[in-house]
TrEMBL record:
EC numbers, comma separated: 6.1.1.21
Protein source organism: Candidatus Wolfebacteria bacterium GW2011_GWC2_39_22
Residues that hold L-histidine according to the record: 99-101, 130, 144, 148, 276, 280-281
Gene: hisS
UniProt cross-references to HAMAP family, sorted A to Z: His_tRNA_synth (MF_00127)
Protein's name according to its UniProt entry: Histidine--tRNA ligase
């Protein structure tokens, strides 16, 4: 890692004080106000995953570097530039996972998941790490949700199911205007023929290609199709397209995927130059785009060769993954904010040590009744505690002073209208319940 940036010093001022430390570049805190949105995404993932019979899997954040170097491909940006490498004291080279798919393939073989009914359908959600230049929608720590189907024949129906899982999740979250961009990059055989034509086209235009693409065409030719440079875009405009080079089997496979997508009414757009940034794909590749956003909110494809590349065996597989931060960005832009789960509606105010002690067990009585009660035990004055109750937007404040503890009673204060009533402590839970109905 070239830059040294474990904790960036910043001159940023927070409430008049200089903030010495910031979170690491490209990595973000998820604050309480955003938690309901994240929770909504997690819940929807679980819901869709379980409905389509995907089983939950979690894999470690740290993996051996070599599985990604092999699996994703040495010439890919992720491997070449974006891995967070960790050297252990014992000299092992590990990485913070840059994606899940390769790790899941490892787990499939490590735990003999071929013993499960095939195909095994797995879903996951968690943080991934890529050392990229942060910008809108691009972070160094981000989160992915994914659906993987491993161990089936290369049947196009599973390609559709991998898309379906992610697409139905997008629908459940009510993201509008999402389309699937889809293409087929064929198998090793037909891709080789296409790459020759592509190389010839770019070599013919060598004078006009950018510096990076000159290297790409030599090392990893398909990558030239991802180049955003204006001159390279012009060259791409009349570059050959891979669909013209697919062999009969790959063509039939792609046609079937599209037919199945029609069957479940998923809108798609054939994007002849979509190739994706990871080497393990074959045949179907796809990405999800939301209207008004120029980055993909998700992507995936078939990866029948990954297991062989990792020297694990032969296994057909296909999957999809969504970027959670990007999904949440689109969700926020759609103007459907998820109401933050309100803080407790009940706030306990204590006055004096006896009341503080009794307050502790009183909260336990509410817990048994399944009701949340907030407090500010560290504060002593009535005024400052009521101020916190106000910030919390509590409906009721329960005021317990020395006198009330002695008399076994408590005051219920309606925070909106300001009325107060004294009730026996033994009846407080039911009195509160009655008022919150
Ligand atoms: P990917 O396209 O590299 O595919 O990542 C999937 C999604 O993760 C992207 O579409 C995007 O939403 C999000 N993402 C990627 N990089 C960043 C970043 N730096 N910041 C924020 N979000 C990001 C994969 O990772 C494959 N494993 C997908 C797959 C699953 N293929 C088969 N199965």
């Amino acid at each position: 890692m070239a830059e040294k940036e474990t904790a960036q010093k910043s001159e940023k001022k927070v409430r008049g004080k200089k903030m010495a430390y910031q979170s690491v570049k490209g990595m973000h805190d998820t604050l309480p106000e955003d938690q309901p949105l994240w929770e909504k995404v997690r819940l929807a993932t679980r819901h869709i995953g379980e409905f389509y019979n995907f089983l939950r899997i979690d894999t470690p954040i740290l993996e051996s570097a070599d599985i990604f170097e092999r699996g994703l491909g040495e010439g890919t940006d992720v491997v070449e530039k974006e891995m967070f490498v960790v050297k252990t004291k014992g000299g092992d080279k590990l990485v913070l996972r840059p994606e899940f798919t390769t790790a899941i393939m490892r787990a499939y073989y490590q735990h003999g998941l071929s013993q499960y009914g095939q195909p095994v359908k797995l879903y996951y959600e968690g943080p991934v790490f890529r050392y990229e230049q942060p910008q809108a929608g691009r972070f160094r720590q981000f989160h992915q949700i994914g659906f993987e189907i491993l161990g089936a024949e290369s049947d196009p129906i599973y390609d559709t199911q991998a898309i379906l899982g992610a697409y139905r999740l997008i629908e459940e979250l009510k993201l509008k205007g999402v389309t699937v961009h889809i293409n087929s990059i064929g198998c090793h055989k037909c891709r080789a023929a296409y790459i020759k034509k592509l190389e010839a086209h770019y070599k013919k235009n060598a004078q006009k290609t950018c510096k990076e693409c000159k290297i790409r065409i030599a090392n990893n030719p398909l990558r030239v199709l991802d180049c955003k440079d204006e001159k390279c875009q012009l060259i791409k405009a009349d570059a050959p397209i891979i669909l013209d080079y697919l062999d009969t089997e790959c063509k039939t496979h792609f046609k079937k995927v599209l037919e199945y997508l029609d069957e479940v009414k998923i809108p798609y757009h054939i994007d002849s130059y979509l190739v994706r940034g990871l080497d393990y794909y074959n045949r179907t590749v796809f990405e999800f785009f939301a209207e008004g956003f120029d980055y993909a909110i998700g992507g995936g494809g078939r990866y029948d060769y990954l297991s062989e590349t990792l020297k694990l065996g032969k296994l057909s597989a296909v999957g999809s993954a969504l970027g959670v931060e990007r999904v949440i960005e689109v969700l926020k832009a759609s103007g459907r904010p998820v109401a933050a789960k309100g803080a407790s509606k009940v706030f306990l105010v204590h006055m004096g040590d006896e009341a503080k002690k009794r307050g502790l067990s009183l909260i336990e009585e509410f817990r048994k009744a399944g009701m949340r009660v907030n407090e500010s035990f560290g504060k002593d004055s009535l005024k400052s505690q009521l101020r916190v109750a106000d910030k919390d937007q509590a409906h009721l404040a329960l005021i317990l002073g020395q006198k009330e503890v002695f008399e076994e009673s408590i005051i219920i204060r309606d925070m909106e209208i300001g009325t107060q009533e004294n009730v026996p402590l033994t009846r407080i839970v039911e009195e509160v319940k009655k008022r919150l109905k």
